[in-house]
Fold Anti-sigma factor antagonist.
Amino acid sequence: MEKEITIENQVEEIAIIAQFIEELGISLHLPSGITMSLNLAIEEAISNIIHHGYPQNQKGEIILKTSVAPGLLIAQIIDDGISFDPTKSENEASGDALSLEQQLTQGLGLFLIRRTMDKVEYHSTDSQNELILTKKIDMDFKPEATLKTNLCKIEEVIILTVEGRLDTANTNEFNALIQPLLSIQNPNIIINCEGLLYISSSGLRSLITLQKSVKQHSGQLVLEAMRPEIRKIFDMTGCSSLFIIR
């Protein structure tokens, strides 16, 4: 089975890709964890192309092709932007090791691609770039494409409930929501993650920004009721050590 979709190099188009992958997962009866891994890697790759592959205001097209081989799901991402090989990080080329702080602020997206996919390949010509992501699969996932939040205060505790997707397309909305929290003195904040179905590097960075602010203002931030698949992303990126998770 082969499927293909073409989008413009605009951040808003990533939501179309997310829906495409979720529908693919449903059609293949993939476990939710596999669909999430595929969605996460493809979002990070395409987001990187959109933000860094084209000069400002230059229009371009990004093609996503998916195919299934025995035990494998293959995603090809093709663009005509600036060549960049995500299989080689800047620190690998220089021989320097990135600190956790540098990984979280600089190379987190590429790190997630390499950790969630079983194989990452890159090819380029004078006219186009091709990134091939391969995931091992064994042949019901209910998609949730939106972000829902609720912010309330009970006595001295601020409770922020996050449901759905905290991804590239939704982080501006989320950042606007948490902006007033960044200036509160001695904040006591609980984030209810029970309904959080998906988080990308953009979402992680937003939470890290909030956590830094809370510490600077002598407060406490707690993440509660996190799903195992979300906790796995925190663990493999090293973000678990930055938060109180219970």
Observations:
- The mean pLDDT is 86.
